[in-house]
Amino acid sequence: MADNFTSLSHENRIFKPHKDFSARAHIKSFAQYKKLYNESIKSPEKFWAREAKNELAWFKPWKKVLDWKVPSAKWFVGGQLNVSHNCLDKWLGTPTANKAALIWEGEPAAPGKPGEERTLTYKQLHHEVCLFANVLKKNGIKKGDRILIYLPMVPEAAIAMLACTRIGAVHSVVFGGFSAQSVADRVFDSQAKMIITADGGFRRGAVVPLKKNVDDAFPLNDAHGNCLTKTIEKVIVLKRAGNEVAFTPGRDVWWHEEVATVDANCPAEKMDSEAPLFILYTSGSTGKPKGILHTTAGYLLGAKMTSKYVFDLRDEDVYWCTADVGWVTGHSYVVYGPLANGATSLMYEGAPNFPEPDRFWRIVAKYGVTILYTAPTAIRAFMKWGDEWPKKHDLSSLRLLGTVGEPINPEAWMWYHTVIGRKRCPIVDTWWQTETGGIMITPLPGATPTKPGTATLPFFGILPEVVDDQGNAVPHNSGGKLVVRKPWPSMLRGLWGDPKRYKEVYWSEVPGSYFTGDGCRQDKDGYFWIVGRIDDVLNVAGHRIGTAEVESALVSNSKVAEAAVVGRPDALKGQALVAFVTLKTGVTATPALRDELRNHVGKEIGPVAKPDDIRFAEALPKTRSGKIMRRLLKQVASGAEIKGDTTTLEDLTVLTKLGSAED
Ligand code: WT7
After folding, report:
1. pLDDT tens, 321-340?
2. Nearest residue to 152 via CA among 83, 237, 252
3. DSSP secondary structure letter of residue 213
4. How buried is 657 (Cβ within 10 angstroms: 0-12 exposed, 13-18 middle, 19+ buried)?
5. Mutational test site, ligand 1, from 175, 310, 404, max ligand atoms within 8 Å of CB
């Protein structure tokens, strides 16, 4: 991809908010942002108390705004509220009740054909959520129980999530692209009692066999020899794809049959501010994915406020975040944030280029989407597919564009600005993480001047800093680690069942501060430029993947002796996965084995984690203390094309002699 803009000094390209946009925005000027921001940092408790009171509906007021003892935060202590009440009941009896809460479009069967369509008003969504919450109760679910949600992108995913929150059950959504093994691992860790799934979901014309994956997860064992039957009592199955599925009597029940047996009267449970709301598994530097725990009041406040100010939500907006509910972006910005604001949130099923590469632009034009929030990797793919696809459609309804998931390269930013935004729409590049619950560093579209490639400045109440190895702030224009100095309401409260790891991973690198795992630099204006992960976590097409996870998936194959996984830059995906593999004695490296190993990883984790390259080696370069020299492997992986027969073993041992003593 041509690097036109990086050679220009893009730091000096400044896009000021348009005055017409600012005039109607929630935050109308940079001065207003600054004033509020300064106030939020100077008197955080006063600031957050005022916001919590104005933004959320409470059953019982809190006694204390913040109880903070590193690394444990409790916000709005003693208060009681309910998330589904704030997203649904709050709007009943107001004009919002009859407004579309969710607009859904299923995967179209063929080019030119519309996808299946469904709209649920706030009133209808409330009704569906109450029914399903009663189904959960009928099937033995109590406050605090964990439920795995493994569904395609259909309205029922949001209904299931909201129903959990209504009765105080803790959901853990598992991305539909993950494998049976991933489902099993998450059940073992969360000790879930129930799985909510579907017969199948559609992607690129094929059926993703979700229920079959669940069935395949049942015989799998954890480290202690326990299988899913130890905790899972019920599996609720949504009929979506119409494919044949196996049914285990007594355990498996149909969603539609259960709903027909209950009534729609289900008052929202009064939940404590700090009651667990959901667990979402995400990759870390080591071992299995970590269960990020979010709680009720703080999370909802963060999701609601950031949705309102970053997307500048207005009553008439049709807002579309393209993320799957399996990721945190889907939690905060498809479901909870928009609904807590009474907005119309669009959901779509399938891929951006099926049946044709104009799927997004067709949807924008069809529904008059005003706000579009997507990932840089998607934008780069659209650039590659050609301008003719967006140019075919009327995109004049768009007024604001957003990106999330990885640094956006300035050329992709400029393309988004020019070809999609037609130079009219501000772009909000939003930096945040599963752990942060909501957006942390971002422009506010009516207030903050933007520059292509930077997420700009912190949201209200957020105090990020770039620091050196000693934890001291570095001067502007020097690189360092990105930390957050103050607790914030939507921060994670811990790792499910592992307080020790929580403290180690997030609060020990720079004692007393939250460590993000990202490298960063502030420019002369104080804007934050995220460089990317500095731990062993890769960002492949916006998916967060731990190298250790892929390595352990590879070595779980009986032919593999050792594996080291590193990232290399990739024009489309941001990063690609390269695996260096040594084989057991007697096993020969062949192209067929390469495919076998890629599929093996797909089976262990999910297709998103399949290595892009597998490179066989006689031995891996190691330091004298036996650590794999990843830095060297990264250089090899990013280096020139592999020459000759790619199945020949590479002699990486030679690198040990070249490299520095330590990794
Ligand atoms: C990591 C978090 C939070 C939603 C999606 C990803 C990277 C995220 C940006 C951005 C540069 C970004 C970081 C972060 N990241 N947004 N706007 N600019 N990098 O959530 O899977 O928890 O990944 O994504 O490296 O640490 P996640």
Report:
1. 999 999 999 999 999 999 99
2. 237
3. H
4. exposed
5. 404
Q: How far, in Å, CA of 99 to CA of 341, rounded? A: 12
Ligand 1 pocket test target in 329, 432, 491, 536 with most atoms within 8 Å of CB: 432
Residue 355 DSSP label: S
Cα 466 from Cα 478, distance rounded (Å):
8
Quote the radius of gyration of the chain (alpha carbons, Å). 24
Q: How far is the CA of 166 from the centre of ligand 1 (A)?
A: 29
Atom of ligand 1 nearest to the CA of 537: 25
Q: What number of other Cβ atoms are within 10 A of residue 581's Cβ?
A: 25
Q: Give me 314's structure tokens.
A: 């207005």
- Residue of 247, 89, 236 lying closest to 156 (CA atoms): 236
pLDDT tens-digit profile of 184-201? Answer: 999 999 999 999 999 999
How far, in Å, CA of 522 to CA of 415, rounded? 24
Distances (CA, A) of 425 to 80, 304, 390: 39, 22, 15
Tokens representing 91 are: 């709007």
* Pairing of the two strands 146-150 and 170-173: parallel
Residue 625 CB coordination number (10 Å): 8
CA distance 297 to 490: 8
Q: Whose CA is nearest to atom 8 of ligand 1?
A: 405
Sign of CA dihedral 244, 249, 251, 255: positive
Mapping DSSP onto H, E and C, the string for 265-330 reads CCCCCCEECCCEEEEEEECCCCCCCEEEEEEHHHHHHHHHHHHHHHCCCCCCCEEEECCCCCCHHH
CB 306 within 8 A of CB 55: no
Mean pLDDT by 10 residues, the chain (663 residues): 40 90 98 98 98 98 98 98 98 98 94 89 98 98 98 98 99 96 97 98 94 98 94 98 96 98 98 98 86 98 98 98 97 98 97 95 98 95 95 98 94 96 97 98 98 97 97 95 98 97 96 96 96 89 90 93 92 94 92 96 94 92 78 83 50 53 37
Q: Which of 544, 545, 608 to mutate to test the pocket of ligand 1 (most atoms within 8 A of CB)?
A: 544
What ligand 1 atom has the least distance to the C-alpha of 517?
26
Task: Please tell me the distance between residue 586's alpha carbon and the centre of ligand 1 in angstroms.
Answer: 42
- How do strand 371-374 and strand 318-321 relate by DSSP bridges? parallel
Distance 644 CA to ligand 1 centre (A): 37
Which residue has the least CA distance to atom 12 on ligand 1? 406
- Which is the closest atom of ligand 1 to the Cα of 432? 3
CB 6 within 8 A of CB 409: yes
Going from the Cα of 111 to the center of ligand 1, the distance in angstroms, rounded, reads: 33
Domains and CATH numbers, the chain: 556-657 (3.30.300.30)
Cβ < 6 A, ligand 1 pocket: 282, 328-329, 404-407, 429-434, 455, 516-518, 530, 532-533, 539, 544
CB atoms within 10 A of CB 558: 8
Q: What is the largest CA-CA distance in the chain?
A: 74
